[in-house]
Amino acid sequence: MSVQSLQHYCLAIPDLGIGRKFYEDFGLEAEDRGDHVALRCAGRNQDQVILVEGAVRQLHHISFGTNESSLISIRKEIYKSGTQLVDPPNCVSQDGLWFRDPEGALVNVRVAESAPWADAPKWQINTPGHCIRKGVRGGPPRDIVVKPRRLGHVMTFAANIQRQEEFYTQVLGLCLSDRSQDIVTFLHCAGGSDHHVIAFLSDAKRGFHHASFEVANVDEVGFGGRHMIAKGYRDGWGFGRHAIGSNFFHYIRDPWGGMAEYFCDIDYIPAGTMWEAQNWPAESSLYLWGPDVPEDFPVNFENME
Ligand SMILES: [Fe+2]
């Protein structure tokens, strides 16, 4: 009984054209669907971001996928927790269960599988004692076009991250990967997934912090970030490496104060692994190395115009 994948997230934003352009510049492919815009990764048959119109930028909902029998169990767990199902929104596909989490954020669980994503060529890295790339140049061309392969995870703000951790593990069957004090908590899928498919960062109120997209390798993390800055977008933070989850990262600010992250090389937790969740010290909560954390990195811009 658990959700098995992160399917998509949906943002309400004041201007669909500006939002569409941001994510297209980020490397996703957009499709207008009348009252909303859907964005996908090249070569992947799955909506990853949905943009709907709203007066201010807000996280509209997050959608998880599971199978039919787990959906029945999750429905029971939702009722057991005292949570009410709500009517699905009109603007997007209404499949599955819709409810609000303890922070009041809209969540959807539907019967859906993760679509396969486009493979990247195996990255050949020479390291001391392991010279595996011989007679071939390693650096990519300067003008590579970075196209994310898939949505990896979403991080949201929550007023009570402990309560979120309990709800998402008990009701949706997610598992704790790691946490850092009362700052942040990371959850993965029981059936095997990245180190985190959802994470919660502590703040006075709920909100959207960032969503993260996998790219082929470290070069694409670096180039993706530089290309977005060259296009006039604000640097969010990077290039660096996280301690929790181990992924390399570069964050770019979206036009409304949220962020999109390029990542590669995240830890993977297979089903049945004896993964021991750690409570990391605060200094490791956000990163292992990289530029100093920008002052506004943990600021919640939700509901602000
Ligand atoms: Fe992230």
Strands across the major sheet, in which order?
9-10-12-8-13-16-15-14
Order of helices and strands: EHEEEEHEEEHEEEEEHEEEE
Mean pLDDT across all amino acids: 96
Distance between the termini: 40 Å
Biggest sheet character:
8 strands, mixed
Shape: globular
CATH C-level:
Alpha Beta
Radius of gyration: 19 Å
CATH architecture: Roll
CATH superfamily: 2,3-Dihydroxybiphenyl 1,2-Dioxygenase, domain 1
Proportion of beta-strand residues: 25-35%
Integer count of domains: 1
Number of strands: 17
Q: Structural class from helices and strands?
A: alpha+beta
What is the count of DSSP helices, taking H or I runs of 4+ residues? Answer: 4
Q: Which stretches are low in confidence, meaning pLDDT under 50 for 5 or more residues running?
A: none
Helix content: 10-25%
CATH topology: 2,3-Dihydroxybiphenyl 1,2-Dioxygenase, domain 1
Chemical compounds bound to the protein: fe (ii) ion
Keywords, separated by commas or semicolons:
globular, binds fe (ii) ion, alpha+beta, seven-stranded mixed β-sheet, 2,3-Dihydroxybiphenyl 1,2-Dioxygenase, domain 1
Describe the SSE topology:
Blueprint: E1 5-13, H1 16-26, E2 29-32, E3 36-40, E4 49-53, E5 58-66, H2 68-80, E6 97-100, E7 106-111, E8 150-158, H3 161-170, E9 175-180, E10 184-188, E11 192-194, E12 198-202, E13 207-214, H4 218-230, E14 235-241, E15 248-253, E16 259-264, E17 268-270
Parallel strand pairs: 1-4, 5-7, 8-12, 13-16
Antiparallel strand pairs: 1-5, 2-3, 3-4, 6-7, 8-13, 9-10, 10-12, 11-17, 14-15, 15-16
The structure holds fe (ii) ion.
Fe (ii) ion is lined by residues 153, 155, 210, 212, 261.
